[in-house]
Every structure is written in structure tokens, then in C-alpha cells.
Amino acid sequence: MATSSVSTASTSSPKPKASGSSEAGGFAVTKRLRKELMTLMMTPTPGVSAFPESDSNLFKWAGTLTGPDGTVYEGLTYRLNLTFPPEYPYRPPTIKFDTPCYHPNVAMKGGTYVLTDKWSAVYSVHTVLVSLQSLLGDPNNASPLNVEAAELWADQEAFKEKVVASYKPL
Description:
Elements: H1 23-42, E1 48-54, E2 57-66, E3 77-83, E4 94-97, E5 112-113, H2 125-137, H3 147-152, H4 156-166
Antiparallel strand pairs: 1-2, 2-3, 3-4, 4-5
């Protein structure tokens, strides 16, 4: 990575602010998100992808997640919406399933998945997506957002019927 010198002259042009954040913090977040995007593009992982919705806003991403093999989600593809706060990576992104997902850890109304518990700044978009894909086949039933799904999980045949009935690809 090339280094650059910082000019203190009053004629230097100000850098544009990142949307919704302070100037210094916005640049750090933007730099981090650009680095994470490059990692996703250079080392793709089967079944997960994400990218900014537009070139002008790195704080809103669209993602996809395919169900892991050998689970009731196998063969299904889910679209996600990731919104990064100005304090990212110190605060987690908000993740919403745009494709309806019947799962113990996904709210049926609104498709929200909550990352606040055990969040760490060392996590990246890639690690979040891979973890989320893994969670499809191994939910945290001790802390469900969808209690009905958590209770039904033990009966995989009945659970799969609910998954298929609620799945509506976009």
C-alpha cells in the first residue's frame, strides 16, 4: 500500500464527508468497508456474496446467502440488506433478510437478524456472512427471535415444510 504525505497548507481541498458520520470517522469506516469489499471480491466464498448497493454509498450493501448443503435450506438463496452504522466496526451492521426466512434467529416480521450479542470489531462482512450461513443449519435456539421456529426445529420434516411455505424468492 502506498503512503502519502499530509499537507497542512490552508489551500488543501477538504475531503468529502462519508454519509452520516463525522469526517475523520467516516473516512476510517469508508476505508475499512472498501478493504472488506476487495477481500470479498478477491477471495470469494461459495454461497455468500455482498457488495454496495451503489458507488456513492458504502454504508448500504446487498448480499446473498445460499443454504448450506445437508440442511433444510439447501438449494435456497436468500437476499440480504446490510446497513453499516457510522461507528462500524465498533457497532455491528444491521442485517435484514429481504427474502422471507423461517428460522429461529430471524424475525418473521421484517426479516431482522440481530448481531449485537458478542459483536467484535475484528469481524468483517465476510465473517458475518459465513457465520450467518452456518447459523442456518445450526441455530441458536436458546435465544430465538422466532419462538415458533425454535420450538419446531427438533422436527426437521415439519420445519422444512414451514421453510418451503415461507420462502418466496425475490
